[in-house]
Design goal:
The chain has one domain. It contains three helices and seven strands. Strands 1, 2, 3, 4, 5, 6 and 7 form a seven-stranded antiparallel beta sheet that branches. The C terminus is likely disordered.
Length: 154
């Protein structure tokens, strides 16, 4: 299963959950080296601690591929505004967009996709079509959750 296929599979399940519940809780869908699948809710702790726990679990379970699914805020901005946004938070920014985000990783790299969450003033929330963000250069705490093969830097 490719990262693209993994996102498509995760999306089908996440859309069903969203349509039923109006929200999606953070979740990892991981595939182990032996082909077994694991669904793991994100640990209910700080982001840093949760990522440390997930890295350890992925190493112990010999995970080779995963997709992380979560709701998030996104804002498109120019780099000059980054300091202010980091200080105030994305949630406080005008023009922010709520999304259902997918971050998939394996030894070939990282792939992202998202669906905008549309919350009308009256009525049920819906999801926009899936948008593949691509395999650009990514960095941050959500990158590099898989164990590193010997001699390979991430």
């Amino acid at each position: 299963m490719t990262l693209h296929e993994m996102i498509e599979t995760a999306d089908a399940g996440a859309v069903a959950i969203f349509n039923r519940n109006g929200a999606v809780q953070p979740l990892y869908h991981a595939i182990k080296r032996d082909g077994a699948h694991m669904l793991v809710p994100a640990p209910p702790t700080s982001k840093a601690a949760a990522l440390t726990l997930m890295r350890a679990l992925f190493e112990l379970q010999d995970v080779v591929r995963y997709v992380f699914i979560d709701e998030a805020w996104m804002v498109g901005t120019d780099p000059a505004e980054t300091e202010r946004i980091n200080r105030e938070g994305v949630r406080a920014q005008p023009g922010r967009v709520e999304v259902l985000i997918y971050i998939a990783e394996d030894d070939t790299g990282l792939l992202m996709a998202m669906r905008k969450i549309l919350r009308p003033a009256h009525g049920k929330a819906t999801l926009a079509p899936l948008e593949h963000v691509g395999a650009q250069a990514f960095e941050g705490r959500m990158v590099g959750l898989l164990p590193r093969p010997a001699g390979r830097l991430q």
